[in-house]
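Researcher: Let's run the pair from yesterday's discussion. Sequence first, then C-alpha cells, for each.
Model: Starting with the first of the pair.
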Amino acid sequence: MTGAVTGLVSLFAVRLVLGMGEGATLPAVTRALSKWTSLASRGAAVGITHAAGRLGAGASAPIVALLITWFSSRFWFVALGVVSAFWAAVCWWFFHEDPRQHPRITLAEPAELPAADPAGQIGSGPVPWRWLVPRVALLMIVYFCQGWTGWLFVTWMPSLLQKNCGLDLKKSSFLYAAMLFCAMIAEFLGGVVTDYLLRRTRNLQVARSRMIAASWILVVAGLVPAILVHDVVVGLTGFTVALFFLCFAIAPLWTATMDIAPNFAGSSSALMNAAGAVAGILSPVAFGWLLDRTGSWTTPFGFSVGLLLFAIVMTWWIRPGRPMETAPRLGRLAVAGE
C-alpha cells in the first residue's frame, strides 16, 4: 500500500497501519517463545530472533537499492509486501499456539516446555493490568533509558562523529554495515550468555538483572571517551563498544518479561516495548533542544549517560525470579482471568 500513496494524508494513514502491525510483532514473538522454549533456552531464542531483525535490516538495503535501480522507487514496496504476505502465510501454516500439537515435535521435547494448556486457557481472558503494570514498571523505566540512548545512535551519534572527528558515517556504507553486524552479534551473544549464567548460577537475578547492569556499565565506559576525546579511533571504538553492550542487554531484558509474567508475556513485553518507543520519540527532540539551548554536544550526551546510570541502579530491584503468579493476592485474580 505504501507504493500506491499519492499524498501526505495517504502516506500518513498507510504508515500508521504499518506501525500498528509492526508494533505487535516483537510482543507476539515473545509470547510465542514463552510457550515454545524452556526456561534454560529462552535467552538464546530471544537473541536469535532479535539478531535476525538486525540481519534483515542490513541485508534489505542492497536488495532495495537493486530493485530501485532495475524497476522504480515504488516497486520495492510491492515486492517486499508480496514476500511478507507469503512469509505470513507460511507462519500461519507452520505455527501452533501449543507446541505439543506440532506434528514434528519429539516425545522428549514437551518435558522441557512450560506446563501444557490443552484448553488454551492460560493467559487468555482479561489481562490483570492492575497487577501486571506495577510488576513490569521497573522494566519499562530501564528500557526507556536504554531506548533513549539507543535512538541517539541512529539520530545524533553520526553528527557527533562528524563534528569531533570529521567522519561522515552516513556516507560510509562499510561502517554502517559494520555497526549493524556488531549489533547483530551482540544480541545473539547476549542471549547465549544469559542462558549460560542461568545454568551456572541457577539465579535469575544474576542471569537477567545483574547482566543488564554490567552491560550498561560497559556502555557508559564506551560512551564517555567517545564523547570527550576528539579522535577518530577513540570515537569509533567507544561508540562501537557502547553499541555492542547496549545490544548485549537486549536478550536478558526481553527474557525478563517472560520470567516476571510467564502467562502474560505478550502484554508485559508490549508494555516494556512501548516505553522504549516513547523514548525513541522524545530523545531526538530533547537532544536537539538541549543542543540549541546550551550549544554543547557534551550536555545532551551526558544526560543520556546519566539516564543509563539511573537505569543501572534501578536494575537492583528487578526480580525476574519472582513470577507474577506467585505474588501476594494475585492467585484469585489470575484464576478469574483464565
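Model: Moving on to the second of the pair.
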Amino acid sequence: MLMCRRLLIVFGILIFSISSSGQVDSWFELMSDTASWKNYDGPFKRKKNDSQTEPLTSTNLHPYFIDLKLLTRSDSLKKLPAHAQYLSWDNQNIWHKKRTITFPNDSIVFHLISEDCDFAFPTEMGRQTSPFGPRWGRMHSGLDLDLETGDPVVSAFEGLVRISQWSDSYGNVVVVRHPNGLETLYGHLNERKVLSGQYVQAGELLGLGGNTGRSYGAHLHWEVRYLGQAFDPNYLVVPSKRALKSPIFTLNQKKLDQPLVARAAPKASEEPKSDSNNTTTKKTYTVKKGDTLGSIARKNGTTVDKLCKLNGLKSSSVLKVGQKLRVK
C-alpha cells in the first residue's frame, strides 16, 4: 500500500511538471514578438526605482527583456512609428548614434499636424529661458522652457514612448517617437507618468516638471531630433505664442548645423526679463560656505518650503558650495 501511495505521488509530480511546462509555452506564444516583451510590465520584469541610476543590465531585468529577438521586420513596420527610417527600437539608450541624413532634393518635408488638436505646447508657460546652440563651451541641444516644480509637461505630438527612465544628465527623462520620424525629448522632470511602449496623444501628460539631473532651477529641457541629430525647436514653434509655425516643416542641412537665431545664452545669475506670458521675475542665489536652506530663505525674504518647491529639493537636501538656487 505504501509503495502504491509513493507511486501516485511521483505520478502527480510528473503531471504537474508537464502542465507547468505547457503554461510556459503558452507565455512564449502570447508574447511572441520582441516589442511586446520590451514593453511588458508584468510580474516577470523588475521595475526600477526612480532614484536608481545604474544602467539597465541583465542583472536588474528579466533575461527575456534583453535576450528575446523574435520581432520580424513586418511586425516592426506595423507597430513602431517610422520604423522604415530607424530600423531599430532602443528603449535603453536615450539617443542613437548619429546617422547620416540623406536629403532628397536637398530637404525633407515633415507633416506635423492635420488638425489644430494634433499639437500641444509642452509647458503651460511659453517662456524660453535658454536657447538652442553653443553654451558655456558645449552644445546645448534643445530649448529650456520655464516652469515650476510639479507643473504638467505634455507630449507635443502623438507618438510612442521610447524612453522613460533616469539619466545622470537629463534627470527623469522621456523620449517620444512620432509617426513622421521626429523624436522629442523632455528632460529634468520631477516625476515620469508614462512607460516605454505607451502610445500617447498630443497634449497627454508625460510627467511633472522639475529640477533633476544636471540642472540649476526648475525648467523643462526640450529637444527635437531626427535620426539622432538635434536641431533648433524654434524652427517648429513660437514659444511666446505656444504655437506651431506651420503644419509642415522642411528640414535641410543648414538647419541641422545652426540655430534659428545665433545668440549668447543668458548667464545663470542674470534675471530674465518678464514677458506677456509670465510677469514673475526670477532671482537666483549662489550657495556659499555655511549656508543652509533656512539661512538662504531668511536672506531672501522667503521660506524653506518655497525654496524646496522652486528647486525640487527636500528640507533635508545637502547643498553644495557654488550651487545656484532659485529664490524667486
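Researcher: Give me one sentence on the second I can quote.
Model: Residues 15-70, 263-280 have pLDDT under 50 and may be disordered.
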